[in-house]
Each structure stands twice: as C-alpha cells, then as structure tokens.
Amino acid sequence: MSAATTIEEDRALVAAVLGNAPGAFERLVRQYQGLCWHIVQRMVRNPEDARDLCQETFLRVHQCLHQYRGERALSGWIGQVAYSMAKRHLERKRVPIAESPADGPSLAESVADDFDLETSVAGAEIDQHLHAAIETLPPLQRTLLTLYHLEELPIGEISRITELPENSIKSHLFRSRKLLRDLLAPRMGLAEVGAAA
Question: pLDDT for 159-171, tens place per residue?
Fold first, then answer.
C-alpha cells in the first residue's frame, strides 16, 4: 500500500475493477494484501486461519465493491472489511477480543504518548522480544498497535475501521504501550525512563 495513494486513484481502481478491466482486481489485492494480512493475522494469530480469512476478505471486497462510495480511502474501507471478518471469526470461536475495562484504570493520563516502538527496538534480540510481547496482548490491542505503528494509520481512520470511539482506541494504545514498556523495560533499560516520566 502506497502512502501516496489518493482517493482519486482509489476511485479509478474501483472503477476499473467494477468495469472488469483485465488485472484490475489483482492490482487491488496486491496493493492491499499487506494491510489485510496485518489486521487479520494480528487478530487471529493462526496463519492458516489468517490466510483463509484474507481470501474471504477479498472475496467479500469483490462482492461488495459497488458499495464503496469513494468518500474515504479504500485502505480504510478494506481494513474495515478485514477487521469485521476477523472479529466475527473470533466471536464464533468465543475468543475475547479485548481485555475488560474493569482490569484497571484508564492510562490516558498516566502514560505518555511518546513511547516510540521503532526506536526502542534497536537490535534483533529486542525486536524478537517486542514481537513476543505484542503476541501476549489481546487481539484488539495487537491489531490497534499494528494499524497505528506499522500501517501508520491515523486514529480517525482506525476508528472507522474498528467502529470504536477514538478515545477508546487511544486508551487501548496507552494500555498496550504501558504493558509493553513493563514487559520490555528490563531488557531495554527503560526502568529509569519510566520512573522519570
């Protein structure tokens, strides 16, 4: 997915797919398969299920593409389809997608938003620890971190994809960052930073 993709380019691609232009749907899949995979795989974690759900997502996209109105980025629309497919899959398996709000107070006031995941993972060993720590998070938090930090989507777009309020997304991100900081602090020398913040 290119950050330079504009809504006009999205509309043109959709028109080409709907007009059955040769290779148009394959272009759409190539362009958005990474986004779809990030969302689905972070939600379900099982690679075989994730592959199946990605295929189902693009089948659904193909069936419903006529509903895309071109008012927002196609990435958000496809991301919403992928998220919905993964969420329904987890609901069918009775897997909770988020921790309960009763698990603790909101961290929005107590955790700074300046925890930079990318600069914190300088070495390969730390990178492995980070990914292992992310995998311990509930599906929703894993997905939100992926959309925000890897896909670099703005909170508003993540809100449209997940249909969660922006404040709820921010709270999940704060909570997830705090948990990751606590898990990784001994390996990254963040104990002093966290105490000073």
Answer: 999 999 999 999 9
